[in-house]
Specification:
Alpha-Beta Plaits, globular, nucleotide-binding, single chain, 4 helices, Hppk, transferase, Hppk_sf, alpha+beta, six-stranded antiparallel beta sheet
């Protein structure tokens, strides 16, 4: 059975826009009928204290027959294929793909937490997510649009 998933896209190295475009092509290979919906892209300030370039972020949505763990492995394979190196937490990266939502499931394992643990506080996730599904209700029964503040909207610049 197919499940609707939402994946956060982020990059700030090696032509970030191209990195995200390449990632979307790779996501099509795991999406049902190769269909992927993509939000507009936004420029955002990096999280944490690591000196690095601004990020380009967006969100993708698609249906998949992969299990949550198989999807996580597929996302990490795409990251690795595009040169992702995990050296510093919240450091610069060629590509970051985070599984935000897997249908309405709640998953809490050592390798995977869904809904994504930080998504409710991150403008670079919430705003692109609302761009592609403004009526979305999270598994905790919170309406997505109730989480977005005017301060969050001011933090991002649409490309």
């Amino acid at each position: 059975m197919s499940t609707t998933v939402y994946v956060a896209l982020g990059a700030n190295l090696n032509d970030p826009v191209q990195q995200l475009e390449d990632a979307v092509l790779a996501l099509r290979t795991i999406a049902e009928n190769n269909a992927v919906t993509i939000s507009p892209l936004y420029r955002s300030v990096p999280m944490g204290d690591v000196e690095q370039p601004d990020y380009v972020n967006g969100v993708a949505s698609f249906n998949t027959n992969l299990t949550p763990m198989a999807l996580l492995e597929a996302l990490q394979h795409i990251e690795n294929t595009q040169g992702r190196v995990r050296e510093v937490r919240w450091g610069p990266r060629t590509l970051d793909l985070d599984l935000l939502l897997y249908g309405q499931e709640c998953i809490d394992t050592p390798r995977l937490t869904v809904p994504h643990y930080g998504m409710k506080q991150r403008s670079f996730v919430l705003i692109p997510l609302a761009d592609i599904n403004p009526q979305l209700i999270l598994p905790c029964n919170t309406e997505l649009t109730h989480l977005i503040t005017s301060e969050m909207r001011a933090e991002l610049v649409q490309l």
